[in-house]
Amino acid sequence: TCYHSGGAVGLLNCFCQTAPVPRGPAAFAPCHAELLMSDAAPGSLAEFRAFREQMNASILGAGNLTINRFFALDGRAYEAGALGVKTKEMLGLVSSMVLRCDDCITYHVVRCREEGVTHEEFLEIFGVALIVGGSIVIPHLRRAMARLEELAGSA
Questions:
Q1: 17 - beta bridge partners?
Q2: 86 — alpha (psi -120 to 50), left (phi > 0) or beta?
Q3: Between vectors from CA 124 to CA 119 and to CA 43, what angle results, nearest 5°?
């Protein structure tokens, strides 16, 4: 069950959006693209990126004005303003962990890393998410840490 859309919906009906990088249509993805992410290890970053690009192109290519406008609004929310991009990405990661969106977590772990978030900062982000979300966040913390380790291994 996904709770991101304001109420419980089946995973196949959830189209939670994440922030784009780079900015543009191919940079967006649904939160739960398929029924996945038990406590098993997540798929590779390469698989995540390929699926995300393919499905975003398909979703945005359908030309639905509401969906396309939401995607654009979501992208604008992460642009620098009174808060910098790094801070916004850290907020996005905490929110994604609390909302238990594994695709969103992967996206924001990558973006936080690109924005220069340190290992120590990641641990504090994870701590805030645990305090806000409670123990139900722990499986998602595991996957966030796995993604972080995958990024470190590919650097």
A1: 30
A2: alpha
A3: 60
Give the DSSP letter of residue 44.
P
Indicate the helix (H) or strand (E) that contains 85: helix 85-99
Distance from chain centroid for Cα 155? 20
Q: What is the DSSP letter of 26?
A: G
Structure tokens at 65: 């004005």
Query: Measuring CA to CA, which residue among 1, 22, 28, 23 is closest to residue 12?
Result: 1
pLDDT tens, position by position, 5-49: 333 434 333 344 443 333 333 333 344 333 333 334 458 899 999
Q: pLDDT by residue (tens digit) across 43-79?
A: 889 999 999 999 999 999 999 999 999 999 999 999 9
H, E, C per residue of 105-152: HHHHHHHHHHCCCCHHHHHHHHHHHHHHHCHHHHHHHHHHHHHHHHHH
Centre a 10 Å sphere on the Cβ of residue 74 and count the other Cβ atoms it contains.
16
At residue 70, what is the residue type? F
pTM > 0.85: yes or no: no
* Cα–Cα dist 104/47, whole Å: 15
Contact 151, 113 (CB under 8 A): yes
